[in-house]
Design brief:
It is a single chain. With about 350 residues, this protein is mainly beta. The protein has two domains: about 180 residues, Trefoil (Acidic Fibroblast Growth Factor, subunit A), CATH 2.80.10; about 100 residues, no CATH class. It has two helices and 21 strands. A hairpin with a 5-residue loop joins β11 and β12. The protein binds 2-acetamido-2-deoxy-beta-D-glucopyranose. The site of 2-acetamido-2-deoxy-beta-D-glucopyranose has 6 residues, from β13. InterPro entries: DUF7909, Kremen_rcpt, WSC_carb-bd.
Length: about 350
């Protein structure tokens, strides 16, 4: 166990005390229970250097790992015996699946299932830019596989990079999307400056006395943001793949964005600007756009079905932005035509 204050003090002290980074003689512990962000470093590759690991919710409760703009910034990672954990979602970093023939890399992601873990060894090193002491997570092994290899990132979609494992001795390169070798670095989360962590929103409970839902503007049970003034009608609370059995695809497959200031207004404006027919908010901070909704992903029209979309928006605690793998789904109203929300009974 390493105490956050102790770790921060050690890092800060080392930076101040000497112009030259001094490596402590005792290595850092393999369990870091105070929250941190994971930074990616490769000083010769500015397109990825000093960027942070984001989590993107995927099917079955898994979380996929990206360097932005895809995914949610994550400030509450921990390390348990060398394995990166994200406790709020009950997931840990594993390697497996999506093997690429071209460059022989395999996906690194997070899951609660029993896949073979990625094992790291925390190691003190000097920051390549500032020469300050930092804790790096040196990749040791893919559990039950030979020791060695490294973690790399390669182009995915929407300008993001995804995380991959490259086995020992591998020198194959996909010329279309080279997997850039990176070092993962522990950046302790400043307890005095914690942005709204995406994950703790799942546990936000609002005291009954503050009654944040504007009952004066919603009929009883109609706990959704009315966007008809902006030309969008509320369709209901629509399931993502986790709650459906029709395949591993997103309910809205067009574009997506996420932010710490998400509102339904911001999401509708985003999807409107791209010309989409459907827009939906999810998991407090995500916005998804698409032009169709599969019959298997249509929301129910019961009042009870709205309960799954009760996550407060990161940008406005008085409105709901979907739920955990549930979309607050809106449809663009025809220009000049009627614009009415679905009636829930
Ligand atoms: C940066 O990435 C390149 C390409 O993968 C790799 O050859 C190099 O070793 C990396 N540098 C560091 C410091 O990891």
């Amino acid at each position: 166990m390493v105490n956050r204050k102790a770790l921060s003090a050690l890092l800060a002290g080392a930076a101040v005390a000497s112009a030259q980074c001094t490596i402590p003689t005792t290595p850092p512990p393999t369990t870091i229970s105070d929250p941190f962000r994971a930074q990616v470093q490769n000083a010769s590759r500015p397109e990825v250097h000093n960027k942070y690991l984001n989590l993107l919710e995927a099917g079955g409760g898994d979380r996929h790992l990206f360097i932005g703009p895809v995914g949610a910034p994550t400030y509450d990672l921990t390390l348990v015996d060398g394995v990166i954990n994200h406790v709020p979602n009950g997931v840990r970093a594993v390697i497996g699946g999506e093997f690429s023939e071209v460059d022989h890399t395999t996906k690194l992601f997070m899951t609660g299932r029993g896949d073979d873990r990625a094992v790291f060894e925390p190691t003190y090193a000097c920051n390549p830019d500032t020469d300050e002491l930092q804790v790096e997570l040196r990749f040791v092994t893919w559990q039950n596989q030979p020791t060695g290899g490294h973690i790399c990132v390669r182009h995915a979609f929407d300008g993001s990079h995804e995380f991959r494992y490259s086995p020992p001795g591998n020198d194959l390169i996909d010329v279309d999307r080279e997997c850039i070798k990176v070092t993962l670095v522990v950046i302790p989360t400043d307890p005095n400056n914690i942005p709204i962590p995406s994950t703790t929103l799942t546990t936000v409970t609002v005291p009954a006395t503050t009654a944040p839902v504007a009952t004066s503007t919603h009929a009883p049970g109609e706990d959704f943001a009315d966007m008809t003034a902006a030309g969008w009608s509320f369709q209901g609370c629509a399931p993502e793949e986790r709650w459906a059995t029709d395949g591993p695809f997103r309910t809205l497959t067009g574009s997506m964005t996420g932010s710490d200031t998400m509102t339904n207004e911001a999401c509708m404006a985003f999807c409107d600007g791209l010309g989409y027919a459907f827009a939906g908010t999810e998991w407090s901070r995500e916005c998804w756009c698409g032009n169709t909704v599969a019959p298997t992903r249509q929301p129910a029209t019961t009042l009870a079905s709205l309960a799954a979309c009760n996550y407060k928006c990161t940008g406005d605690a008085n409105q709901n932005c979907g739920g955990d793998a549930w979309l607050s789904l809106y449809a663009k109203c025809p220009t000049g035509g009627p614009c009415e929300n679905v009636v829930f009974v």
